[in-house]
Design brief:
Order of helices and strands: EEEEEEEEEEE
Shape: globular
Structural class: mainly beta
Number of helices: 0
Distance between the termini: 40 Å
Radius of gyration: 13 Å
Helix content: under 10%
């Protein structure tokens, strides 16, 4: 079966960096658009970044532009999220998601597969 397994979350201070990884199995990874969503208490789940399987076109939410970078390694079936200059408002559970859509869609319902999430906590 399909599995998306996130890792790399943790507790850091404002201004620090973290790198999240999402290892995929059970699917043809190179043909899936991958995205990272986050969910924090009292807020709706939101897309943070995404990278398409075709042409590796990327999407970044305005709140993370210039600070976060998404990349993928199809040989390793893994997508990464490099998070720099972290802020307390980045605190959330981060989820990896996979979609067969050609481009990066911001709607969570188009993503077929989801990881279990990894907690990122940024202290001030």
């Amino acid at each position: 079966q399909v599995q998306l397994v996130e890792s790399g979350g943790g507790l850091v201070q404002a201004g620090d960096s973290l790198r999240l990884s999402c290892a995929a199995s059970g699917l043809t990874f190179s043909m899936y658009t991958m995205a990272w969503f986050r969910h924090s208490p009292g807020k709706e789940r939101e897309i943070v970044v995404g990278i398409s399987w075709m042409n590796r076109i990327t999407f970044y939410a305005d709140s993370v532009k210039g600070r976060f970078t998404i990349s993928r390694d199809n040989a390793k079936n893994t997508v990464y999220l490099q998070m720099d200059s972290l802020k307390p408002e980045d605190t959330a559970v981060y989820y990896c998601a996979a979609s067969r859509q050609v481009g990066v869609r911001t709607e969570d319902y188009v993503y077929t597969y989801w990881g279990q999430g990894t907690q990122v906590t940024v202290s001030s």
